[in-house]
Amino acid sequence: MKTVGLRTEAGTGRRKGARNTAAPAAPAGDGHTRESVVQLLLEEGPITATAVGKRLGLSPAGVRRHLDALIESGEARATRSAPWQQQGRGRPAKQYQLTATGRGRLGHAYDDLAGAAMRQLRELGGDSAIAAFARQRVGTIVAGIDKLARHTPESTAAKAEEIAEAFTEAGFAASTRKVGAGVQICQHHCPVAHVAEEFPELCAAELEAFRELLGTHVQRLATIANGDCACTTHVPLFVLPNDVPNAPRTVAQPATVKTNDSGRSAE
């Protein structure tokens, strides 16, 4: 990486040997690299420093510099990996993810305008109008996604991934990951988080859409609107017949995953 060096003493008029108290200039392009680190933490966090370096082609020292700066500014945090995430022996590696402050770097366009419009809608149509609007908004995001026809671990995981892709296209930076006998849909960003703090109907409509498309009981573990680092929804990879209306009396077997995790999102 190209850097901007300090001026030498020659020709500066300074006494030779005098102490230079000026801070070294930041490496050229450091701002762009920092933004790339932020984006990676957003889309794939929690993630280890080693993984960040491999993805962005940075040296260990470079990764530490950026991560330490983000932690110092309150934009990122580090936690130890869960036991089931540890590979090999030794102390669990640290994993890094954005905080609410870090996600704030991405901006929340038109929050004030959207909030004012929602409040006016509630005055005119009541809570039912807000709920109807929320359902219509989510319906637009998942338009074209068919309901899950048959429950198997593979088909359920594939449908969850399809939902995550639709939300990513809508600006939610969503992904999926298998945890125990389930899969989690993780939305690492929420373009309407500040509005959803006041209008939880937006979050409720998303959960309702997940349940309808997946045809099973799903559970919300965390939401950005409540101050968590991501919106995390747990989807079981197997269902009991009683959980699915009009379903045949068969039970799909869970995928074989060796884990000691409780099923909650790793943070």
From TrEMBL:
SUPFAM superfamilies: Winged helix' DNA-binding domain (SSF46785)
Region (Disordered): 1-32, 248-267
Biased segments, Polar residues type: 256-267
Lineage: superkingdom: Bacteria
One Pfam family this sequence matches: HTH_24
InterPro entries membership: ArsR-like_HTH, Carb_Metab_HTH_regulators, WH-like_DNA-bd_sf, WH_DNA-bd_sf
Entry-linked Gene3D superfamilies: Winged helix-like DNA-binding domain superfamily/Winged helix DNA-binding domain (1.10.10.10)
PANTHER family: HTH-TYPE TRANSCRIPTIONAL REGULATOR SRLR-RELATED (PTHR30363), TRANSCRIPTIONAL REGULATORY PROTEIN-RELATED (PTHR30363:SF28)
Protein name from the UniProt record: Putative ArsR family transcriptional regulator
Organism: Nocardia mexicana
Lineage of origin: Bacteria, Bacillati, Actinomycetota, Actinomycetes, Mycobacteriales
